[in-house]
Design a protein that fits this description.
Catalyzes the transfer of a N-acetyl-glucosamine moiety to 1D-myo-inositol 3-phosphate to produce 1D-myo-inositol 2-acetamido-2-deoxy-glucopyranoside 3-phosphate in the mycothiol biosynthesis pathway. The protein is of the alpha/beta class. It has 15 helices and 14 strands. Helix 3 packs parallel to helix 5, helix 8 runs parallel beside helix 9 and helix 8 crosses helix 13. It starts with 36 loop residues before the first strand and ends with a helix. The relative contact order is 0.14.
């Protein structure tokens, strides 16, 4: 198996917009890209896992797509993740220039994300064993994802003498400030851990200007070390394709139905219950909708939703809409694109979203979105153009938004066309170029400090 790729992508392509301007602008390199190889850390969830269940979600997609594009642009990526089965090879080639390394740390099965801090020492040991087998300077930089990985990255970057770039993806203080009813607060240990990582990182990557502001406000992150890079979407996979009618035919859905879709992990944070309650209100107001509405819920239990995985099914029964709700397990990316295309509208009533990749994926497929005006969703969704943003989580407000689609059968097509155009601004190539700029700035700053007599 080759660990090398040709040096592609020397020209500079498009970049994600950076609405949050740090006090010190990011350094721009005019010469060849200097970051040759990145150690990317994802302790608690593997890029090989199926998104939509367990702890696998948008972060998995983010890591896979970012790594692919970085490699295509000339930066090799090795992703370190915890082994969750003995059936996988220690090293798997995900794509040319992208390796996934499985690290033994604790039992393969039966460990929740909350139990993983006790395994960080074992995980770090495994990472160091891999590093010890290489020549000095093999990795130019460490990029960690989520706070658990950040602690491993902190030690690895110091030991190797390279910069640490960290992406939070979610933050305990932000999640705790917007808890859904019945959800479990993030522990104090995570808050402390995140604060330590913010102080240790050479650069922090935020998905949106709002997230960058939250890092500065809640964690006192230095503004000149915080960069905004919007995540992307695989525009080759998520596209309108052959249209809504063909997708519905493939999925066995009625052609003339109003289909509000929920896609993602089933947990209180994502608030699928808000959609079900909104649908119940719609049907109570207009009983004829019962004969022309299908409500797919595509995803599996996750997080605190694992405690009572049947909760949503029981809620549908109590609301009297069990005959309308179609529960489906998580599906692969190609079939997920068909669910997006088939839907009249995607509904995302989340209490917290660092960005909301699902919203951009749906729009790229030509499907409008009704979403909570939280986190990165106001960036992902253009209110009134590619969908509608809802303040709060009152089911009546979501019912009001969905009523527009029930009353106007042409609305999904009109908003969907604008949604597809809006999503074109979120390609992974631009996100990878901007991430590479962050890498280069961190590397140049470290080299400058090493050359300085006061560094």
């Amino acid at each position: 198996m080759s660990h090398h790729v040709s040096r592609l992508g020397q020209r500079r392509g498009g970049r994600s917009a950076l609405p949050y301007q740090p006090r010190t602008p990011l350094l721009r390199l005019s010469g060849p890209r200097r970051v040759r190889r990145v150690a990317m850390l994802s302790v608690h969830t593997s890029p090989l896992h199926q998104p939509g269940t367990g702890d696998a979600g948008g972060m998995n997609v983010y890591i896979v797509e970012l790594a692919r594009q970085l490699a295509a642009q000339g930066t090799e990526v090795e992703i370190f993740t915890r082994a969750t089965t003995g059936a996988l090879e220690p090293t798997v080639e995900l794509a040319p220039g992208v390796l996934v390394r499985h690290i033994d740390a604790g039992p393969y099965e039966g460990l929740s994300k909350e139990e993983l801090p006790a395994q960080l020492c074992a995980f770090t040991h495994g990472v160091m064993q891999v590093w010890a087998g290489h020549r000095p300077g093999y990795y130019d930089l460490v990029h960690s994802h989520y706070w658990l990985s950040g602690h491993v990255g902190w030690l690895a970057a110091q030991r190797w003498g390279v910069p640490l770039v960290h992406a939070m993806h979610t933050m305990a203080k932000v999640k705790n400030a917007a808890l859904a009813a019945g959800d479990t607060p993030e522990p104090a240990a995570r808050v402390i851990g995140e604060q330590q990582i913010v102080r240790a990182a050479d650069r922090l990557i935020a998905n949106t200007a709002e997230e960058a502001g939250e890092l500065v406000h809640h964690y006192e992150a230095p503004a000149d070390r915080t960069a905004v890079v919007h995540p992307g979407v695989n525009l080759g996979r998520f596209r309108p394709g052959d249209g809504r009618a063909a997708a519905r035919a493939r999925l066995g859905l009625p052609q003339d139905a109003l289909i509000p879709l929920f896609a993602g992990r089933i947990q209180p944070l994502k608030a699928p219950d808000v959609l079900l309650r909104a649908v119940a209100l719609l049907v109570d107001e207009d009983p004829s909708l019962r004969h022309r509405m299908v409500v797919p819920v595509v995803g599996g239990p996750s997080g605190s939703g694992l405690a009572k995985p049947e909760r949503l099914q029981k809620l549908a029964a109590r609301l009297g809409i069990a005959d309308l709700v179609l529960f489906r397990p998580p599906v692969g990316q190609d079939q997920l694109a068909d669910w997006y295309r088939a839907a009249s509208v995607l509904v995302m009533p989340s209490y917290s979203e660092s960005f909301g990749l699902v919203a951009v994926e749906a729009q790229a497929c030509g499907t409008p979105v009704v979403a909570a005006a939280v986190g990165g969703l106001p960036v992902a969704v253009r209110d009134g153009t590619s969908g509608y943003l809802v303040a709060g989580h009152d089911p009546a407000e979501y019912a009001r938004a969905l009523r527009r689609f029930a009353a106007d059968p042409g609305l999904p097509q009109r908003l969907g066309s604008a949604a597809a155009r809006h999503a074109q601004g979120f390609g992974w190539d631009a996100a990878a170029h901007s991430t590479a700029d962050v890498y280069a700035a961190a590397l140049q700053e470290r080299r400058r400090r090493l050359r300085s007599p006061h560094g």
